[in-house]
Amino acid sequence: MENFRFARQAAILGSSVFDHAPGTISLSSGAAYPPCLPNVVNEAIEAVGPLREEAMQYSPLMGLDELRQEICNYVSQDGVFCKPSNVLVTYGAKSAFDLALRTFIEPGDKVIVSRPTYMTAIHIMRTHNVQFIDIGRDEDGILTDELEATLHRMEKNAESMPKVFFDVPDFHNPTGITTTLIRRQQLLQLAQRYNFVICEDDPYRRIRFEGEPVPPIKSLDDSGHVIGLGTVSKILAPGLRVGWAIGDYQIVRRMAMQKSDGGSNAFAQRIVIQMLQSGRVNEHITELIQQMRIHRDVMVNEFSEHIPEARIRAPQGGYFLWIELPEGTDGERLVELGIREGVEVSAGRLSFPNDGSANFIRAAFSFTSEREIEEAIARLGRAWKILKSEQPKLN
Ligand SMILES: Cc1ncc(COP(=O)(O)O)c(C=O)c1O
Predict the structure, then answer these.
(1) Same domain for 229 and 264?
(2) Which residue owns the Cα nearest ligand 1 atom 6?
(3) Which residues are paired to 208 by β-bridges?
(4) Rounded to whole angstroms, what are the CA distances from 53 to 50, 56, 57, 83?
(5) Which ligand 1 atom is nearest residue 96's CA?
(6) 97 Cα–ligand 1 center, Å
């Protein structure tokens, strides 16, 4: 093998999707359910025909003006009132978060996250060489008391203070928990007092099966401390790669200047504009909610049948189950055994930026059909039995 001189972050490839046996059922990614992907033939024909001079061109750096206006209309349904000048169009929410980090973070700067948090966000933050300040969470969201005490202590010790806070307040990935209004208000107060920006990543907000929505932190923000990160990945199709950041004009303009790949995909933006203008997005969300609710229920039932020891709090929305296994379970070993049995879930440890509990796994119910979910959890149940024979204290 060639002795390539890889960067530290690329040196270990690990076991990954590239290695899976054919027929492995993947529950590791929040991919869209294929039968629910929208048919956008008519929108695409418009974009490559009459609108080709716009759609086949580089997009303006901030995104197409019409899309920025449509995004304002869309988020106003959630109580976020902004102007197109506050909206930056990106290649998805992850890319928007990366641009926010480029705008605020220098190597060694501190970022606040909850423990656990969204695993891909951890990866993105690591590429910026951040230091993580990880704060616990409970059924109400991140522990704002612990955060306040931490910030207070850091300030007293004249430590460098965190610049960015990242969280997923609605149907948190991975725990599925929705942060309460009071915690959101407390967070915003802390952001204002200690002058950090909140990156509010909200891809699942509209995928609510039950319960009442809680106002986005961005809707409470009168000081510009919140950057709202949005995407069409969960409400339409991740392949479109269209997302946005909503924030203070000074911030989003600087974020736009950090783009290294031009102005984002004008063709896909044009498709999204048409889907938003025609009202098809909201129709699509209604269908998606019905389907995802069924998937969630099937998965919860299958876990209770095949791994009755697992503790699951069924989320009221979103794409994932967060599964707590008995204390002492090696979740990473269960993932390995699961892959051998033909099912892939994610090890919970990947969601912890520093040290984390090993007895969790995450399973997405979004991508697979009901029948595949049944088969997948039956396979995981077989892996669980093998693990229990290896770790008899779990019995
Ligand atoms: C928490 C969270 N943020 C963002 C995204 C989507 O990012 P993007 O818009 O880049 O597809 C996901 C998808 O899995 C997610 O779980």
Answers:
(1) yes
(2) 93
(3) 317
(4) 8, 6, 6, 26
(5) 10
(6) 10
Say if strands 197-201 and 226-231 run parallel, antiparallel, or are unpaired: parallel
Using the CB atoms, write b or e for 45-71: b if 16+ within 10 Å. ebbeeebeebbeeebbebbbebbbbbb
**pLDDT tens figures, 39-66:** 999 999 999 999 999 999 999 999 999 9
DSSP E strands: which ranges in the chain? 25-26, 87-90, 110-115, 131-138, 141-142, 164-167, 197-201, 226-231, 243-246, 311-312, 320-324, 343-344, 346-347, 360-364
Q: What are phi and psi of 181, to 5 degrees?
A: -60, -40
Same domain for 153 and 177, yes or no, is yes
Residue 169 Cβ contacting ligand 1 at under 6 Å = no
Q: Are residues 221 and 309 in the same domain?
A: no
Q: Quick one: 291 and 254 in the same domain? A: no
* 89 and 229 assigned to the same domain: yes
Are 143 and 56 in the same domain?
yes
One domain, residues 205 and 293 = no
pTM for the predicted model, two decimal places: 0.96
231 close to ligand 1 (CB < 6 Angstrom)? yes
Which atom of ligand 1 lies nearest, measured to the CA of 93? 9
244-294 pLDDT, tens digit per residue, is 999 999 999 999 999 998 889 999 999 999 999 999 999 999 999 999 999
DSSP structural state of residue 86: G
Ligand 1 within 6 A of 93 CB?
Answer: yes
